[in-house]
## 1
Amino acid sequence: MDGNTVRASSRLLKSTNKTALHLERRGKMTVMVCAFLIISAALSITIFLTVKGLDAFLENGVSIVDFLSSTNWNPTDHKSPTYGALSFIFGSFLVTILAACLAAPLGIGCAIFMTEIAPSWGKKVLQPVIELLVGVPSVVYGFIGLSVLVPFLRSVVGGQGFSVLAGTLVLAVMILPTVASIAADGLNSLPGGLREGSFALGATRWQTIWRVVLPAAMPTLLTAIVLGMARAFGEALAVQMVIGNVRTLPEALTDPAATLTTIITLNMGHTTFGSTENNVLWSLALILLAMSFFFILFIRYLSSRRKFS
Amino acid sequence: MNSRQRDQLATLVFYSIAAGITALLFGLIGYMLYQGFPKLTLDFLTSPSSSFKAGGGIGSQLFNSFYILVLTMLFTIPLGLGGGIYMAEYARDNKLTSTIRTCIEVLASLPSIVIGMFGLLVFVNLTGWGYTMIGGALALTVFNLPVMVRVCEDALRSVPREQKEASLALGLTHWHSIKTVLLPAAFPGILTGAILASGRVFGEAASLLFTAGITTPTLDFGNWNPFDSVSPLNIFRPAETLAVHIWSVNTQGLIPDVRAVADGSAAVLILAVLVFNLLARWIGSLLHKKITAQA
């Protein structure tokens, strides 16, 4: 550190030397600029994507009601192109909710095992492993789905293999470590006295978990699930590789479908920037943006209800 | 069934859930490594990819991944550090601070494809650069910034209060004590966080599809002029990274040996995540020992 060799008199705030005060101001300005960059990044993403996302409705005259309520998606038709995105909106919600239904009980069960049943082993071995798995890139999960799960489903359930079910399973496996690791943090942060109080009253471990630990940690556990859902809702490539990408509404779990992200991924590259077909994709992105704001608000609501933190 | 039996049953269920999940995840990751490992020859790792024929490697993709990672960290670390210092040291408990917190939360929870589309709008179309390495790195900076700010803020906050107070009591200015006392003490935490964030950036694909593109020009690795269009160092060229490559060979590729290339690439990605994680833990504990003077 070069600063160590500066004489003390020149580092003091109230010295006659003005450089220290000057440096103080300059340092504070620098970090404030960084902080403002964060605000401007978040604001400009919101503004740019909102403006661009509304283009299709305001400039190209696509009906917003049709967009949200029709399943008729055919933007390449020359005579009468239709832009009904309901199948994709439905597909996104379907895979997200199904994946959360699979991952939530398993993830929370795993977190309970790590914190309540085998804390020493859980903390030393399982938690680092789970955290490592959070970092595995989503394309890898998608590729595993494509090369292992899809052929497996094809031979067991029949059909193509590319299906809602495949998408759900890939997403569930992908968000499982996220849910487990956040839920474990939540359970760990509960005051230890809760459990001891319950044991002292003669409750078994299961009664303590079910009647004391789970209700006390409920807001955090829900936060873990919502964060997992947010990740699943926004995931693009992993789902795109296994879900089959068709425009129609799926009628069974084994039918192929599409989600908002998969349609954007597929078509963004080869539609002309500024065309109606392209602008509608930005409207799909606007829905993704709105959903991620919704998830944030929901998590805020949950954390305001947290009793122990 | 009495409460004792119920307790035993529940314990059994939890054991099997934990065992099942561990087995499943280990199985998947192990399977990918097992499939990909035989493909990891020096030739595969260094030769350029081919668009039609079999036998292409992942040389340029691997290089692009690391290059984009370095560029991203070059932007993210100073910005994240600045933001973290502001949040930990200067931010008062007011409206502005809570706005910044909300913005960090918003950025952190945006789907990466949305960040990619923002990048397409701003760094590709608005600037007129087209698909470029630098556009991809800037999009990844937006993607990574909230993580980095949090890491730096947490690391600075976990420095014992007494250290800061002692340095202020000696008459140092706030900025000078941040620079000479707080930052060195927080360094292990920041470094660990930065390495973990690098792992995340390395595997990111969705936000790069429309910013860095899904193609790579033929690179001449003997050409080190950063302004030449075939030079690997040129930051204004399209650059397909390894994670994007896995996706593109599987969905858009025409090569006959898709499976082999993708297997190998996936194994490299998993290995990279492993290495980044272990490195972060190892360096973190090493530095911690050195700074706290434990043998």
## 2
Amino acid sequence: MTNYSDQSWSDLLGKIQNLASNQALLANVSADGQRLFEVNRITQAQLDQIKAVTKLPPLLMAKMQENEAKIAAGEVGGDPFPHALRFQGSLTLRENLPR
Amino acid sequence: MENWGAIFEFATRVLTKPGDVRSLGAVTIVPHEVAHQWFGDLVTLDWWDNVWLNESFARWFDRKTTIKFHPEFYTLTNYVADKHNVIAADVKNTAVPVQRNLTDAGSFGFIDPSIFVYNKGSHVLETVQNYIGEEAMQKGLQRYLKDYQFGNATPSRLWSSIEKATGVKVAAIGDSYIRQTGVPLLTVDAQCAGDKTYVSITQESFPNQNVYPASRWTIPVTLAYGDALEQRKTFVFDQNATQLELPGCTAVLAGPTGRTTT
């Protein structure tokens, strides 16, 4: 997942049509934009601009939108884990992180 | 079911009635079970914790096969959508690492939640391949299968075989993704000064509700830059922040999965 400073987003979106033949790349940038918007890291205006510039062919667009609708409806993940969750590595407990 | 040399499957899941359109499952199930003949059968898991070494490889190969031979069912764009499904699941409080401690488990429910054991693991393998290249990955996996045929595998053994075959370090990359929940978020700021672009990159955990949130990953980052974003630079990023220079004044696209696409 990648976010950019405002200027870097602007520069990137001005050039990204050079990669228009790579539809997976455009889909990924568009979906990254959606994820970033969901956690308030970019504005609605930025998301609209990202989606306009990374516009996919109608069939692919429909598939991606269908997938995003599943994510928005909470239909992805969330399955219970039937075992005790144990510490897995060099992680930091949430309450110890500065906020 | 991937019994060695005797794959069993319900006929209705594989065969399509005349006139009906084949489902994605009908297309992927055969390459999935065939992949298990090597990944799961020839080399099997050391303990239930390692089941992703069976299922993620089988998922990775069934998707690669379908993308190549049946693009009408599945393309790289679908794989991108799948990655975002994984991300959505991986930031919830129900997320668990791909490689887990299942000391209490035996065989009960050891593949659940399957989105991590199957899907996320396959994206980790894709990331490793993106970083070292397809040919190197093939050599690494051939070495892995030879080293542990009729034996048992762990992630450390997988990474070790790939590293021995290719001379490229991958263990820190792989472990940081399979042993932690969540996903990294890179933030890129590229500024032009003179005839260079100065790129600052930071990493943090993408906002999440994980029980044990991670804070840092070892990430193979690929930058696309240049007038038409045609240039590439790949490096491993394992700190909280880094800076680098690129020639010319250029926009920058950063892919945190070893290439810019997925």
## 3
Amino acid sequence: MPSTFLLRYGEIALKGQNQGFFLETLARNVARAVEDLGPSEVRLAFGRVLVSVEADPEAAAGRLRKVFGVVSFSRVRDVSLDLGTVTSEAVALAEEAVTRQPEIVTFKVDTRRAEKRFPLTSMETSSEVGRAIHERLPQLRARMRDPDLLVRIELRDRAYLSTKTIPGPGGLPYGTGGRALALVSGGIDSPVAAWYAARRGVVIIPVHFHSFPFTSERSKEKVVDLCRVLAQSTGPLDLWVVHFTEIQRAIQTQVKDALRVVVMRRMMMRVCDRLAPRLGALALVTGESLGQVASQTLESIAAINAATTLPVLRPLIGADKTEIMAQAEAIGTYAISIRPYEDCCSLFVPAHPRTQPSLDETQRAEAALDTDALVRDALARSERLRITRSGADPAAIGPVSDRRAEGTR
Amino acid sequence: MAEREIYLDNAATTKPHPAVVEAMTRALTQEFGNPSSLHRKGLAAERLVKDAREAVARTLDVAPEEIVFTSGGTESNTLALRGVARLSKGRHIVTTAIEHSSVLTPIRRLAEEGYEVTELPVDGEGRVSPDRLAQALRADTILASVMAVNNELGTVQPLEAIGRVILGHAAGGRPVYFHVDAVQAWGKIPLRPKAWGVDLMSISGHKVHGPKGAGALYVRKGVRLAPLLGGGDQEGGIRPGTENVPGIAGLGAAASLLGADLSDVAGRMTDLRDRLRRAIAAIPEVRINTPDRGAAPHILNASFPGVRGETLLHRLEMDGIYTSTGSACHSHDPKPSHVLLAIGLPPDLCTSSLRFSLNRFTTSDEIDAAAAVVARAVADLRTLVR
């Protein structure tokens, strides 16, 4: 027997003429999230998304929990629009809940009547059903605020009943917000930033700067594993692994050490600046949080930002480290991020980086670099990996400057 | 990446020998019986285990009944240490500061459970002094654990002298058990537990071209151990559980290879290691950490000031040369090695150290090629990361 879920979405309801586009995308994403679990059907109805899937309900719920745009959802029983049937089903559900959790002592019935042909109003239905539950389970007391058990009834084409509400991630459907390159280092912050951008509907293309032999193959594997976690919410991702070794080498030999970090970040911006238009990306996403490290002061951010004309989205700009860590924990990236392999950001940091570099002195410091040639070579030696929740595939390896990359369809 | 691979990380693990693979394949595909079964399929498997036990015993010049098969060095060490502690009345254990974590961790756990532990310091070459050990022994000492060859430096410990000290102390009262972690020594230096008064000795298959997951503990006849696991009466009840017949057969095949020609093999490896030592020592500012004399034939540890060991390792990997920083079990740990700190190396020299380890099949061509790449790589990296 298939399990049916009723999904609630938030902001999309406020959309005007293009609401249809958002809803269709949401429905498609929901269908994709459960497609490998078993045959499923997704349908839009009366301000809700209804999913029925022939699969283990726990497994299906695990997937739905990660679909952007879903504010909350419930596993529901659907019955015909008939007061007697609705009432007996509600009583049955309450009985099941009490058997499962004998500590339940208070309850409430909450009805939403979208189908106005139903003979009773929402309030009347609630009190009718509530009376029936109390009759069968006299130990339960009705309580309007913070009940132990909330029986929700939605009266639509059919009646949908549930006793459990599971939070979703919120946000907007993935794929409704354009495309951006997300810089992913392997640290704690950048995957969280990418996740926040994706939650606003932006298709993310992760970009990792790899500096072998200064960083190990394992640091690349770490980024792949981080992207696999993100792919649980986004679907397949195209990870670009940029060959950053020669740029790093040039910076180490030609830039004075206090300014190396800022110049390195500027080179990353330049690589992205060239890659973005080829992939149809309109912005960059970084994990910067104001004042966290030397390269994240306003002065540094200004100097780094000047190397690109693309808007740089910084979803974590106002977050504290502890908040970012908690969010990483919630997303599931934290345990991967703290694996002890260094990324290129930590390895080349000089003992005393400048915290307030001016754009002018930064430009003078990097004047010896042939930035154009360095960026071109780095991209030509980059590789692209297709990341799904279950692993990575090399999708294409080779120069990107000579042909149009297909981007992420 | 390079086409040619030069594997100089043999102290981490070795490539299984074809004879080992063959013995294991046979145990997996033909003699797959359970040695405890009464039928002839069981008997055939039992014979494989028996042959392996004899082969291992021969390498240590001990009786086959004194060999207990385990899952490897870590289990052998834990079984020896906890097995003795459980059945002893005393409260004191002596060990050294440079033991492998599979000795230090079980001993530190025993310390948490109430045992007193003395960790003996070592000299600048990583060698423990028998005199200091003599001073550390007490009336309530139950156990002394000293490794045969240090896995990071290659330093050989004076086991014979230590054995005499322990026997002398024991003569005055209760016996002190002598455990030797010989994982890095087996097949590299002669091991004579009987002559040295050793009660327990740990060895592992995968350091000598055998399989991972198979090792043994020598338990001198008359020494009683409490088992770590509960179950059947396999391995005299000391190590219950259906025997890992393929692993044991592979371990036996590896032991047979160690056989008679140890001094030839060791001499050849020493020559090659010294050749590498001379080449590496010629690189400016290098500090060789492995002692000149009294080191096992297969290990060379050196520090390259100004270069991070990890970076050099990956740089060498680009040319197909595989090495190690510290010992493989904790090389992801950014903390400097406890062994290098114990010989008094400053922390920055610890983090710039690299270990090269040979095997009996390493050639002089490989050594020369590797040394040339190391010299180039160090010079190159020094221009970048200073």
## 4
Amino acid sequence: MFSDFPLLSLVIWLPIIGGLLVLAAGKNDVLVRWLALAFALLTFLVSLPLYTGFDSSTYQMQFAESASWVPTFNIHYSLGIDGISMPLILLTTFTTVLVVIASWEVIQRRVSQYMAAFLIMEGLMIGVFCALDAVLFYVFWEFMLLPMFLIIGIWGGQRRVYAAIKFFLYTFLGSVLLLVAILYLYFQSGSFSILDFHDMRLSMNAQIVLFFAFLLAFAVKVPMWPVHTWLPDAHVEAPTGGSVILAAIMLKLGAYGFVRFMLPIVPDASRELDWLIILLSLIAVVYIAMVALVQEDMKKLIAYSSISHMGFVTLGLFVVFNIFEKTNSVAGAAMGVEGALVQMISHGFVSGALFLCVGVMYDRMHSRNISDYGGVVNTMPVFSGLMVFFAMANAGLPGTSGFVGEFMVILATFKANFWVAVLASTTLVLGAAYTLWMVKRVIFGKVTNPQVAELKDLNARETLVLGSLAVMVLLLGLWPAPLIDVMHASVGHLLEQAVRSKL
Amino acid sequence: MHTLSLVIVLAPLLGAIIAGFFGKVIGRAGAHWVTIIGVAISCLLSLVVFKQIIFDGVAPYNASVYTWLVSDGIKFEVGFLVDQLTALMMVVVTFVSLMVHIYTIGYMRDDPGYQRFFSYISLFTFSMLMLIMANNFMQLFFGWEAVGLVSYLLIGFWHHKESAIYANLKAFLVNRVGDLGFLLGIAAVLMYFNTLDYAEVFHLAPSMANVTDDFVMNEQWSVITVICILLFVGAMGKSAQVPLHVWLPDSMEGPTPISALIHAATMVTAGVYMVARMSPLFELSQTALSFVIVIGAITALFMGLLGIVQNDIKRVIAYSTLSQLGYMVVALGASAYATGIFHLMTHAFFKALLFLAAGSVIIAMHHEQDMTKMGGLKKYMPITYWTFLMGALALIGFPGFAGFFSKDSIIEAVHISTVPGAGFAYAAVLIGVFITALYTFRMFFLVFHGKERMDEHTRHHLHESPPVVTVPLVLLAIPSVIIGAIAIEPLQFGDFFGHAIMVLPEHNVLEVLAAEYHGASNFILHGLMAPAVWLSLLGVGVAWFLYLKRPDIAGEIKQRFPGIYNLLDRKYGADDFNDAVFAGGSRSLGRFLWRFGDIKLIDGVMVNGTAFGIGKLSGVIRRVQSGFLYHYAFAMIIGLLVLLTWFVF
């Protein structure tokens, strides 16, 4: 029934129009909040048919739309989703609702602009996941940075200007290379269609150059070592909502770029240079986890933890070539890619929840320093229960979503290489160490700071936000099949593309 | 059987959820009733299952409940396998858990976290049942980590105590080191067997016996050996084998009921259960069995020695648990899996009894755990005294008591085992018998006999514990005395386990023992002619002499041999080493990587260096800059469009 209805356009433009309306509503903060919530909820509801109406038996793009945009250059407004992008869109619409609710009373300054920025950003991010035309993709990709830049720069902390500019310059640097790569592909193929890029032949040299352009563009976003240092600064300075969107969705865009551009467009170069990505992923898992261990600022710690967890995503995506070489079939490689995709969704929930937890404490104490806390469980038992739960999910406890992706990636990696699997598994110890050590110092222990003794437990609004995330984390951990089943066809197709030579 | 298994697993979970989320609503009595009823249902139904499988000859049940996920065409399922081994474990776990639930009413009576505690121990029962009833490796790992989580929550139950929250973090992390190996072992199973289902893996195992692969340094390694050793690393964490034993003594920071349930009777024996379950794999690797027996022997002997110098009553029992776990592991290494499980069972009863009796003493002493401040408690606490004595006699393997049968079987099995390392193990377990008797009766005499060393106030209030405490003691004392004599014949020499445990003919030490076995009383007589019994009586005698007859000598020995005493008192330096090297080392490394790698090198040189250069340049065009962020943003969009236009035309 949705075959002709432009559902994807609706999901993209509804929040953007909503954002503009919220902006127009201006000074009336109450109206602004309810309007923003209404649009966020509506967008979430409208995005649900993408799951219920999804046909998981095919890898073909679904809910596809196409219209000519700039005929001179063969640029199209073409949209479509597959089993890889669809869950990410739902993650975006779900998270935005929570962010709007979480910011309800916290943001008192320029409320309409704040809410508008999030709604517009939501639409733009969904646009990135839907775009099948490279120019359209690039436009969404670039414009998406602006609201985040403004969110950090206006509602951020002390060093917000430094963080915002660092964030912008870093990501902009990557983007420029992406643009050059896209233009090169256009001049070679005469089309801006991403699916056409997938099928075009490319020489090894061209592929290698494109590989590094893509790598820089997407590695900054993921982020991968050594282009990761913008993330801790951005997180620390960003308001809670900004951190949540940044961790839950923006980082996924980089990984999505690897899936949509790198593997299918430059498969031979990816195969040749997969060791580089695996190496950088392992550095993320081990080196960054060590750095996370010694952080004194909770947000920085979770930011480093994010980088470490994203290492599993890139690892899962790029072990496929090793497995293929060993077994000569893609049959054993799907688990790595599917694990990476599950890790993306799970990390969206878990890191988002942890940033919200820090936000809850920051709103009360105006400090993110671990040493200012201790014994929070005595005054905030409900909050502490949830925080320990999310910490356990972050440490990859089975039964939570955090386990599923890591488990699958480690299983797949073992097939590729024993030692890579050993190093990747150190996250079991290191991830638990930095997360639970923080929990020990913040949540448990005696109350030493008189401010902690005054803390009030979660209010209904905060309980709703954290509670719904906890439900998602638990559901996905106990029964990940509904999520993974929609991916099979698309991942199978992606693997075929990844191992098919284009030379 | 399907519904039965589901109810057994879910009843404690439901109790935990109700007590955990609605603790305030249902109140303290509500919380203990709902969880006790849940566990009681589990226990009763486990007995029904036990009867069906063991006595009625119902075929083992193996089926999946739901599909967790499918990837690469491999199904990951949640399901149950209930065979003889599982049925026995279910009865032990749910029975001890039920006793501990009842006991907790008395022990935690005045604790503000009453409901939370009941919720946790019920959640533990659920997790442990998931672990032992799993029919695949994925669910085994789920249960494995879930019991670890509850253990973490319970060790740190008194979260205001710095020592408790240090101990629970340590326990979790050390267990995670073991789990690292365990997870890799599971990954190896998946890689070579292409399934995680027990039945399929065990069916394929013989065909993998001679398969090798290059894991390390391009050397060919037997696949089965690598899998077994990796899995056993997990068991070393959970069952606290050297060198991953360091967390168990510290876990005594938790309330005593959980020391009995989790850190003595059930969770710590999960590793032993797992190896017995994997017997079709371990049997195929002589190397792995050797590794197992040597690790077990080291643990059995050296951890027992530490028990002699401890003054905290719970820590003595904790080191005893470590040592006894070593005995079980030694049995596994000698391919006497049934004996390992036999000792697991008798140990579950008498060690839970000892812990709960120690808890009864601790209540009476107003939460004083130092034995040097006790003494002469016999006349104040008769029920505790007699039940503790039953437990102690069972522990040292006094002829006729439960521990005697299981421990003597282990010693005999190791004696005739031909696995490399069995000779060392035999010596270790024999000396261990003497050590066990020494530390056990040192504790017994210090607590219940001799001078009353407590202060006047405490002495004045000394009295026997209430029935909710003593009834579980009595109920646990009964199996601690008789279960050995009853169970030895079917468990050791009969066909109790059927196909649940697989032993190759050339490793089958129990068959040799069975030929010499002529009934339980004969077994006792035979035991009297072997060294073990006499060593244990000697241990009791030495303990009596040193701590009751001539208490001054013990102090003199301590002064005469300060080196040995310090070595034991510092626990061979294992904690100091871990603190300095692993904990301290990774913190220093992390600090270096952060300060030098991230801040100095990447941010300092690469990022800000670039920015500085650009900053110089932009000083020239400073006038265009207004300082408003959205101007920058706007300028960037325009710049982008210009760039786009330039490229396109």
